[in-house]
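Whether sequence alone determines local backbone shape is best considered at the level of individual chains. The sequence in question and its structure tokens are set out directly beneath this paragraph.

***
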Amino acid sequence: MERYGGGQIVIHEYDPAWPSLFEEERARILDALGPNAISVEHVGSTAVPGLAAKPIIDLLVGVRSLDDARGAGVRRMRALGYTYLPEYEEWLPEELLFRKGPPGPWTHHAHVMEASNPRREEYTLVRDYLREHPGVAEEYANLKKRLAVASGDDIAGYRSAKRAFVSSVLASARGFEPRAVERPPTLRPQSPRCEG
């Protein structure tokens, strides 16, 4: 059983500081990954105003090359205090997961993937749908609070137990067009290619 890094899973009420914490970390990651980084978006529950969540900032990091991220990017993310979790690649193919906080409570997750990875859209669709549907977000918060109590420190069991709800939100979101996005993702211009 995979244990939650902070001990007992606890869902906190929404903290208005979460967007600022994201912005600070976004700037650090863009600087560290350099031109390989295309975008960094705030995803997960802390990206949804008013939604109760584990106090972990999820960052969706788009890169030009996953191989480059797997190489020099791992070293650069470690310099920012992240731990690379290669064992998650079996569960999250074509994605690199980094966690900040261990050995203490986890504070950030960086999900690094190429822009063509279909999971990028899944992260943003669920986020946008919950932002625009506060009733669904409230239902999700209540579910997470119940599951946190029932799961103790079993983070894998907690994730598994909420999977059906998240899948149903994703299915609804696939037919949903958000009114407005909080802010466009931070994009880096593509470097010019030499043609000879």
In short: The beta strands are 37-43, 57-63, 82-84, 96-100, 108-114. Confidence is low (pLDDT under 50) at residues 189-196. DSSP finds five helices and five strands in the chain.
